[in-house]
Amino acid sequence: MQTYLDHHATTPCDPAVVAAMAPWWSDQFANPASRQYRPGLAAAAAVERARGRVAELLGAGGAQVVFTSGATEANNLAIKGVAEAALAAGGKRRRLVSLATEHRAVLDPLRYLERHGFPLTLLPVQADGLPDQAQLEAALGPDVLLLSAMAANNEIGVLAPLAPIAQLCRHRGVLFHCDAAQAAGHIPLAMEQLGIDLLSLSGHKCYGPKGVGALLIRPGVKVAPQQHGGGQEQGLRAGTLAVPLIVGLEAALEGAMADRELRSERLGRLRDQLWQALEALGQVRLNGALAPRLPHNLNVCVGGVDGTALHRRLRQHLAVSSGSACSQGNPSHVLAALGRSRQEASASIRFGLGRGTSAAEIELAIEAVAEAVAQERN
Ligand SMILES: Cc1ncc(COP(=O)(O)O)c(C=O)c1O
Question: Can 301 be counted among the known catalytic residues?
Answer without folding.
Answer: no
